[in-house]
Structure formats: structure tokens, C-alpha cells
Design a protein that fits this description.
three-stranded antiparallel β-sheet
Length: 91
């Protein structure tokens, strides 16, 4: 279940609420009881970045750390056999 952030437009009170995705948004502020509560858009609590957990945790054998192998061999394009782009060429 996601955690939603709310802010009251009347008094400025902010709160977080653990709710089902299918649940209706809250409308009444628990601080001032005004029907001015609005759901805020917020960023996720975590982010998967870098060489990745999949690269190191779930591969087996020679394919275990492809990101590390490409970095030690030069650029990823050179290691994979893909042609290098010329400087100033459009993407």
C-alpha cells in the first residue's frame, strides 16, 4: 500500500496516510476539520540506480558482473562490439 501526503489548504497542516490505491482521497483536515485537504504529488521513497542489484545478485557464471567488465574494457560500446559515434554526430 502506498503512503500518500496531504496538505490542508485552510490551515497548512501536513500529514502522511497509508491507504489502498483504490481508497478515496481524504477530504477533512484532522487539525482544523475543514474540508480543504488536498493530496500532494511526491517522489518515491527509493530509487534503483547504478550498476544495479540485478547485475550483482541474480546472474550466474560468466554473466555475473557485465557492468564491471565493460568499465574495465573501456567504454560500453567498445566492449559490446557496437560502433563508436563520431564526435559532433547527431544522436
Amino acid at each position: 500500500m502506498p503512503i500518500y501526503e496531504y496538505e490542508c489548504k485552510a490551515c497548512g497542516h501536513r500529514l502522511e496516510k497509508l491507504q489502498k490505491i483504490s481508497a478515496a482521497p481524504l477530504t477533512d483536515c484532522p487539525s482544523c476539520a475543514a474540508p480543504e485537504l488536498a493530496r500532494l504529488v511526491s517522489a518515491a521513497g527509493f530509487r534503483l540506480a547504478g550498476s544495479g542489484w540485478y547485475e550483482t545478485d541474480f546472474k550466474a557464471g560468466a554473466k555475473k558482473n557485465l557492468a564491471g567488465d565493460a568499465a574495465s574494457a573501456g567504454s560500453g560500446a567498445a566492449a559490446s562490439g557496437a560502433p563508436k559515434k563520431k564526435e559532433g554526430a547527431a544522436a
